[in-house]
Amino acid sequence: MRSPVQGDRERLNTIYDDLFTWMECNGYERNTTEGAYWIESNRLKPVNPFDIPSAEIQQFDYDIAIAIVQK
User: Fold this and answer.
1) Which of the listed residues 10, 19, 48, 70 has the most CB atoms within 10 Å of its CB?
2) What is the full DSSP assignment across 14-67?
3) Going by C-beta distance under 8 Å and a sequence separation of 6 or more, which residues neighbour residue 52?
4) Nearest 5°: phi and psi at 16?
5) pLDDT (tens digit, 9 = 90+) per residue, 35-54?
6) Does the predicted model carry a pTM greater than 0.85?
């Protein structure tokens, strides 16, 4: 499952709640087997997001990719 996110920190937190609610309501859960990844990428151009403390980032252009399986 992949979800693009754009907005402020509050929007980012809401997306996580929405994703987990959707998974629960539709009979899915995170795939936690070895080799299954959860990827979060934040496109902060022209800088590297790892050079900025996360608490200082106010706007996000973010992708969340979560491996899921049916329960």
Assistant:
1) 19
2) HHHHHHHHHHHHTTEEE--STT--EEEEE--SSS-GGGS-GGG--EEEEEEEE-
3) 44
4) -60, -45
5) 888 887 877 777 777 788 87
6) no
